[in-house]
Design a protein that fits this description.
The protein is of the alpha/beta class. It folds into two domains: 4-244, TIM Barrel; 249-293, no CATH class. It has twelve helices and ten strands. It has helices at residues 13-20, 40-53, 73-84, 99-115, 131-135, 137-141, 154-161, 184-196, 212-224, 238-244, 249-267, 282-293; strands at 4-9, 26-30, 60-64, 90-93, 123-128, 149-152, 200-203, 229-232, 273-275, 278-280. The strands form two sheets. Strands 1-2-3-4-5-6-7-8 form an eight-stranded parallel barrel, surrounded by six helices. It has a two-stranded antiparallel sheet with strand order 9-10. Strand 9 and strand 10 (278-280) form a beta hairpin. The longest helix has 19 residues, at 249-267. It binds glyoxylic acid and magnesium ion (MG). Magnesium ion binds at residues 33, 94, 129, 153, 155-156.
Length: 296
């Protein structure tokens, strides 16, 4: 399950400890934009130490490397994977603009897995953060069999398209001049590309961690578009995110009733039935099944 992904700066050991004890599904140790340039090397070493020394329970562990082709990305991988390959589930690749960015990391991992006899295959999570990345999102999603998610990088995406710097958090739902969800197209485009290739889609974090109502609304909007999870930048955001991306009691009950009513309809030789004044058919049944599968 990847409902909540807690992002923590790679150089801050104290935050790793707290993250390990949190209720997030995934912990993402960051080497990229939350780490000052002067501390990139220190962050790598700290990430290796934390991965190997802390008790992460049954959490998925992930790192975000620096941008492919920049001065740090290749060494992030060369120095971290051989030392903790067996414990790491995935690598978030930031600012992916073309499939080549994914191919580069994929081949590097293939070589390291062979050299160091690493049993588990490390998964990839390309992050879409600029217009070229969004234009190429289908090819990026298909670029490697390691891909498991597509991640939206809202801050870099906003700056790369020159969107007006109005609020530093949310999806525009607090901006009454804008009629709706500012990133509706981007998230929907990512959902189509990702789901067509069996990937999950993960929304950007909600920057104002004191605004739990805004976070809830932002997560609900994303969930309504088919997004599967959301990054968190503060432990207080995790429970809200987990609950939005899990089926509610009402949803579970409704799904169960759909299954029951439809079963009777099928037994009576009918293709459709009625529940609470609404028509239900095979498509409704699939929706109900998907809801119940999320409980597993
Ligand atoms: C994340 O990387 C972002 O740019 O929002
Ligand atoms: Mg970014």
């Amino acid at each position: 399950m990847r409902r909540s992904i807690l992002s923590v700066p790679g150089h801050l050991a104290g935050m790793h400890q707290k993250a390990a004890g949190s209720s997030a599904d995934v912990i993402m140790l960051d080497l990229e934009d939350s780490v000052p340039l002067a501390l990139k090397e220190e962050a790598r070493q700290q990430v290796v130490t934390s991965i190997n020394s802390l008790d992460w329970g049954n959490k998925n562990l992930s790192i975000r490397i620096n941008q492919p082709g920049g001065q740090f990305a290749h060494r992030d991988i060369l120095e971290i994977i051989p030392k903790c390959g067996g414990k790491l589930n995935s690598i978030v690749i930031p600012k992916v603009s073309t499939p080549a960015d994914v191919h580069f990391i994929d081949k590097l991992l293939e070589g390291l897995e062979a050299e160091f006899n690493l049993a588990n295959k490390i998964a990839l999570e390309p992050s879409i953060e600029d217009p070229l990345g969004l234009e190429n999102v289908s090819e990026i999603a298909a670029a490697s069999s390691r891909n498991i998610t597509l991640v939206f990088g809202i801050a870099d995406f906003s700056s790369s398209i020159g969107a007006k710097f109005i609020s530093i958090y949310g999806h525009g739902e607090n901006e009454d001049f804008y009629p709706g969800h500012r990133w509706h197209y981007v998230l929907s485009r990512m959902v189509i590309a990702g789901k067509a290739r069996g990937l999950s889609v993960i929304d950007a974090p909600y920057g104002n961690f004191k605004d739990s109502v805004g976070l809830q609304r932002s997560a609900e909007l994303a969930a309504a578009l088919g997004v599967d999870g959301k990054w968190a930048i503060h432990p207080t955001q995790i429970d809200i995110i987990n609950s939005v991306f899990s089926p509610s009691i009402e949803e579970i009950e409704r799904a169960q009733r759909v299954m029951d009513v439809y079963k009777i309809a099928v037994a009576e030789g009918k293709g459709a039935a009625e529940l609470d004044g609404r028509m239900i058919d095979n498509a409704t049944l699939r929706l109900a099944k998907i809801t119940l599968e999320k409980l597993k």
